[in-house]
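Hi support team,

I've been running sequence recovery on a batch of backbones for a student project. Most finish fine, but this one hangs at about 90% for roughly twenty minutes before it completes. I'm not sure whether the input is malformed or the queue is just slow. I've pasted the structure tokens below so you can try to reproduce it. Let me know if you need the job ID as well.

Thanks,
M.K.
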């Protein structure tokens, strides 16, 4: 039986960060993962470039049943702390829109940095290791694994969520929480494309590949970014963002011309006796194929000078307030994050430890904290892992 101070289940972003911090404190630390490689989701993130954090990180960028829970960790290990680590390793990076930071070269740079830090602080990582049983007695945790048995003082669950099962996602973390009578908030896919109702799918499938800047909203949230039509439905950053706030059966509203007042424009042009056809005017703002799908040819082929108020109001309504009722989402298969997870009310926001079991910790995506698209989920992983690492 291997006897260590800390066992961390999960060799992803939060698990490795926690292991490094525990190692720094001289704790004998073992990381276990059923995958054959550490940090698989790190490697695939950001199209292989890893959107590792964001210049602007606020609690408002996160969803949770407890909106305040993430504040403590995010304030104690900030984006600037992680950027300092990246800079020390001389990893070149760049900023994209909305403060997102990406590696110039490869996500491997971030993973190699974490693995080097792990080695530096004598962290042991065992891969291809499945957990078959966990028991607690006399303040210690005993784990049966496919690579032998382990006993530890502190056990950290960094198993991630259910998103992207082909990368090895499993419900293990939630099962461990339930085993120890720790509540789990119901999970669902987040940052995920929408599928369309059959009639809409047939109508809009020919638009596959078209991208437009738009504002998507529901009664609780709105985002303005690119929308991408796919052969399955709607995707792109703006759809991924609103999907985390969408509930089944809900209708979303899409403003395809968020920076334009189409009603005023058309009335002004009509007053100027504009002879061009409506479609010629609208072609300057939106792709022809999209306009043909949303508006009847009979209206598109009217000269602007001959448009009635009813025509103008109808066109403006269709393009500024397009109503879509998604059929659903593509689910965990393509979701970038899992909404829900281990209930924050059951954890200490300072240490990430269970209130019932002081030596049992939950960090990263397995917890009911989910970030927006843009590096926020990685920052939560770094911060929650760092915090637990100070106490395990």
């Amino acid at each position: 039986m291997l006897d260590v101070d800390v066992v961390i289940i999960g060799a992803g972003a939060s698990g490795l960060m926690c292991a490094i911090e525990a190692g720094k404190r001289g704790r004998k630390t073992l990381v276990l993962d059923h995958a054959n490689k550490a940090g698989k989701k790190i490697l695939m993130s950001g199209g292989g470039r890893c959107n590792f954090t964001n210049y602007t990180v606020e609690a408002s960028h996160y969803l949770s049943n407890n909106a305040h829970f993430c504040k403590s960790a995010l304030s104690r290990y900030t984006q600037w702390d992680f950027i300092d680590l990246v800079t020390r390793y001389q990893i070149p990076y760049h900023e994209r829109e909305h403060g997102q930071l990406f590696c110039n070269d490869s996500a491997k740079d971030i993973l190699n940095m974490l693995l080097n830090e792990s080695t530096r602080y004598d962290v042991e990582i065992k891969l291809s290791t499945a957990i078959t049983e966990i028991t607690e007695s006399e303040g210690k945790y005993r784990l049966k694994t496919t690579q032998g048995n382990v006993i530890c003082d502190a056990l950290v669950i960094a198993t991630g969520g259910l998103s992207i099962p082909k990368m090895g996602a499993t419900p293990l973390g939630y099962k461990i929480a339930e085993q120890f009578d720790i509540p789990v908030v119901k999970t669902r896919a987040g940052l995920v494309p929408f599928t369309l109702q059959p009639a809409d799918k047939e109508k809009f499938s020919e638009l596959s590949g078209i991208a437009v800047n738009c504002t998507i909203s529901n009664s609780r949230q709105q985002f303005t970014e690119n929308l991408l039509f796919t052969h399955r439905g709607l995707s792109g950053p703006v759809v991924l963002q609103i999907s985390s706030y969408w509930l089944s059966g809900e209708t979303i509203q899409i403003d395809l011309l968020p920076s334009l007042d189409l009603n005023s424009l058309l009335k002004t042009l009509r007053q100027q006796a504009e002879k061009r056809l409506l479609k010629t005017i609208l072609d300057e703002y939106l792709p022809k194929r999209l306009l043909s799908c949303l508006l009847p040819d009979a209206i598109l082929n009217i000269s602007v000078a001959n448009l009635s108020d009813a025509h103008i109001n109808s066109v403006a309504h269709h393009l500024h307030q397009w109503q879509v009722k998604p059929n659903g989402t593509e689910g965990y298969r393509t979701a970038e994050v899992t909404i829900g997870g281990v209930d924050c009310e059951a954890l200490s926001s300072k240490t990430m430890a269970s209130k019932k079991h002081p030596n049992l910790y939950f960090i990263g995506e397995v917890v009911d904290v989910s970030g927006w698209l843009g590096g926020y989920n990685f920052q939560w992983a770094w911060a929650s892992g760092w915090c637990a690492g100070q106490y395990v």
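--
Follow-up from support: It reproduced on our side and the slowdown came from queue contention, not your input. The chain has a mean pLDDT of 97. No action needed from you.
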